[in-house]
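Q: Hi! First time doing this. I have a protein sequence and I read that you can turn it into a structure. Is that right? Here it is:
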Amino acid sequence: MYRLAMLSVVLMTVALCAAIAQPSTQPQELPEMAAQEFRVASIALAVENLEPTVRFYEKVFNAVFEPLEGTDRKIYAGKLLGFDFLLASNELAGVNAEQSRHQFDIVVNDLDSVLQRVTEAGGTIREQQTDRGVRTVTIVDPDGNTMLFIGNE
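A: Yes, that's right. Below is the predicted 3D structure, encoded as structure tokens:
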């Protein structure tokens, strides 16, 4: 059942990537309310294993995270993929989340280079698939969160 659900996610992602890669003849605009009313301020990820997870995201994404002052090193702030990104301990976040609280699907130019950094940083490669020239790889960070990297063959 899990593999069927993951296959469905991968196929939808491949279709989305193929659609994104094709230039549209019509400009895509956000609905007026969404364009004016909403923007992402930051993304926060609550984790069990804070220090290894911080090192993982720094190495894989060439990011820099700094502990926030006055938090006793239980929360780190940095930039990831252009967003303000926070990594916090489950205890500080007040949650009892164990893994896969969010999943990021990220398009990369050099998939093999990214995968090498993933394993060097303590992540694992869970599954790889290729469909219609698009290669997708599910990885797991040191805290057990999944992430999908998408690249060309």
